[in-house]
Amino acid sequence: MIITTIPDLYLQHDEALGLLRVEWASGQNMRTFRDSAEQLLTLVRELDVRHMLLDMNTFPDISVYDQVWLGVNWMPPLTKLPLERVVLAISRRRVHNQLALDSLISMSRPFIKFDIQFFSAAVPGLHWLCDYSAQLPALLMEWNEVYGSGLAAPGGASEPRPLYHPTRHP
Predict the structure, then answer these.
(1) For 96-145, what is each residue's pLDDT tens digit?
(2) Most distant CA pair in the chain: distance in Å?
(3) Which pLDDT value is given to residue 91?
(4) Which residues, other chains included, contact 79 with Cβ-Cβ below 8 Å and sequence gap of 6+?
(5) If pLDDT is split at 50, 70 and 90, which confidence band does 82 have?
(6) How far apart are CA 137 and CA 32, in angstroms?
(7) Quick check: 93 pLDDT over 90?
(8) Are 89 and 54 in contact (CB under 8 A)?
(9) pLDDT value, residue 162
């Protein structure tokens, strides 16, 4: 089910899987980021989410001020939620946000009781979160119909495509 209650976020929920997929929807505009993050915590609590995918590939670089705010105000309540698995989808090219996430996780590690995994793209992370559920193709179709396919890993794989074109010999 697509959820539209938080304007800055693309959201999808599947009750049977206890899954919430989250992606930033406001481009470079981070003015309402903190409000949206607080609303997200409330939503995760209300929906009794066990598995969450945060697609960080669409998030702009998180400012130092927002990183501090996340560490002080957002991570403590997040660690108290009944989450079991969290996937952070982030390309290796997003170094700034990768370092910010590493710092937040490191700071909160003693309180985190859920499994956190990193994937470079959302779809492989969803497969892992859903234990390769037969429901996943329908979820992906619903997401693509509403939001489009979004960012993919380079060449649709975890490795970039070669920059050369092999010559064909007759």
Answers:
(1) 888 888 888 888 888 889 999 999 999 999 999 988 899 999 999 999 99
(2) 65
(3) 87
(4) 108, 111, 112, 113
(5) very high
(6) 32
(7) no
(8) yes
(9) 42
User: Are residues 57 and 94 in contact, defined by beta-carbon separation less than 8 angstroms?
Assistant: yes
In the 8-state DSSP scheme, what is residue 6?
S
The SS3 assignment for 66 reads helix
Q: Spell out the long-range contacts of 25-32 with Cβ–Cβ below 8 A and sequence spacing 24 or more.
A: 25/58, 27/60, 28/60, 30/60, 30/62, 30/63, 30/66, 32/7, 32/8
Average pLDDT over all residues of the chain: 86
Measured distance CA(62)–CA(70) in Å, rounded:
10
Euclidean distance between CA atoms 19 and 148, whole angstroms: 19
CA 136: distance to chain centroid?
A: 16
81 class by beta-carbon count within 10 Å (0-12 exposed, 13-18 middle, 19+ buried) = middle
| Helix extents (H) in 109-135 | 122-129
Set out the domains of the chain in order of their start, with CATH numbers. 2-156 (3.30.750.24)
